[in-house]
């Protein structure tokens, strides 16, 4: 049944092209078809031959990504940082950077922004063409990265099974909310967040002002999902409880599993926040409540130290700019200006 | 000197069998009720029903007014405050029996219950079209003054929408299931097209009529079940054969939380009981049936 159907359509197609190819109609009785092109239209197309232009070349950057070794992880970072093994200043990106490193997967980082991503989120990973399968998309978005990493390795790091979900919930809720306040709504926004996310992308002051406003508005709206008013004390109290619990989990894991060298996704996520909070000296933050809380817990400080060395990660360039000067905020500002070419 | 604790909550309405229609307020009541029981009535507390939460630190109830003159909002912050405030008799706290490991677990599991439980109740009471318009909204109307009735419930619904939009379930829960679909209109007579309905009933007669609808119902059910399972299955595993979630002997603030969330889902009277139906199949229902009567049975009178 199906074969006759396809031959039928093929017949139609050939008669159709025949009619197109030759200017005369009704050559053979078979050539007549309902789909034949009417003569006046056909004359127009005879006069204006349809032309297909060759496809544009891919942008240079993509070429570079394709030819480089390993997979390419697109993250938030300063453009000049991308080639080195510098940490992203965005914890969601740094988390995957740390996790892929802990799984010994070869990759390099590419500085990008969320406009480059298909789902407007960073990070995403472009699989090295030599390992990609022709039947799969070679772009792995953030929520598929864990599965993808497992497929590459066929093993999953040790987790305290029952505890994974609730402790991950602490990181995804309590810690993330406090981080959002700390970075976007406290004075740290001016010193750290705006230069990292916005000033590195544009020099136009109008765009900078509107983008800052939008970024802060988005953060505020996100925090207001859980309560109509932002209770700052409550946010930090929750973060304190969460860090206490995570500190305790690490202690227990050390007691139960002798070898703590294979960090899990939970630890990579925890590390991403700790690294960004602890790498900058306390007095450099304009609002240092959250790093102060994190510093209270020895296991957390220890984890940050161990994993930092293990991964060989350096803090984002903006940290150097902020720590370089010892004196006033004015000085750190001038260094920032130099770093990001702000006038 | 006896300490005086005032707990401000949102009141209840028709269809909601408990003292409040808000689950966090219920959790706070459950907590104090358990505390009252375990400390032999040493902690003196009063419930104050109010509708205006604009003075609350986070714009929501429950709010605890402590005798140390602090106002604390947020259910977990309230639990913590009761455990640490000097003005409360003898540091009586539901979690005082815990060691550090148990305290850490309690914090983490509380985050799990709050996040996924709130999400589930958002879907059940605010996003499910029928439930919102026939139960939740009228319950608010019962205690809100006329002008606030036009701002507060829509604001709460909008917040619920925002909290759950990443799940993409608004379209399947927002539609009305049992009402008849839009009737095809006859262009000739201007009324309902009799020929169209006749052909529909004919296809129904031969058994193909509702196939698409049945299929989509099954799919909907499967997605909702997976959301409830993400919430309940880890908790079932945690409870195991113990009497309470973290110990066999003493209740904790986590028990108060789970109790509030699950008993609200099970007992609220809504037309589309999808969440209750799924939860009823869970092992936790027995636990709820055993523990709930102790908790809500004798809450103090409204002050």
From TrEMBL, chain A:
Residues 91-188 form the Thioredoxin-like fold domain. Residues 1-22 are annotated as: Disordered. Coiled coil: none annotated. One of its GO terms (cellular component) is SAM complex. One of its GO terms (biological process) is mitochondrion organization. InterPro entries: Mito_Protein_Transport_Metaxin (IPR050931), Thioredoxin-like_fold (IPR012336). It comes from the Eukaryota. Residues 1-17 have a biased composition (Polar residues). This is Thioredoxin-like fold domain-containing protein. It comes from Microthyrium microscopicum. The lineage of its organism: Eukaryota, Fungi, Dikarya, Ascomycota, Pezizomycotina.
UniProtKB/TrEMBL annotation, chain B:
One of its GO terms (biological process) is mitochondrion organization. Signal peptide: none annotated. It is found in: Mitochondrion outer membrane. This is Mitochondrial outer membrane transport complex Sam37/metaxin N-terminal domain-containing protein. InterPro entries: Metaxin_GST, Mito_Protein_Transport_Metaxin, Sam37/metaxin_N. It comes from the Eukaryota. Residues 232-290 form the Metaxin glutathione S-transferase domain. It comes from Microthyrium microscopicum. Its main location: mitochondrion. Keywords: Membrane, Mitochondrion, Mitochondrion outer membrane, Protein transport, Transport. One of its GO terms (cellular component) is SAM complex. Residues 25-155 form the Mitochondrial outer membrane transport complex Sam37/metaxin N-terminal domain.
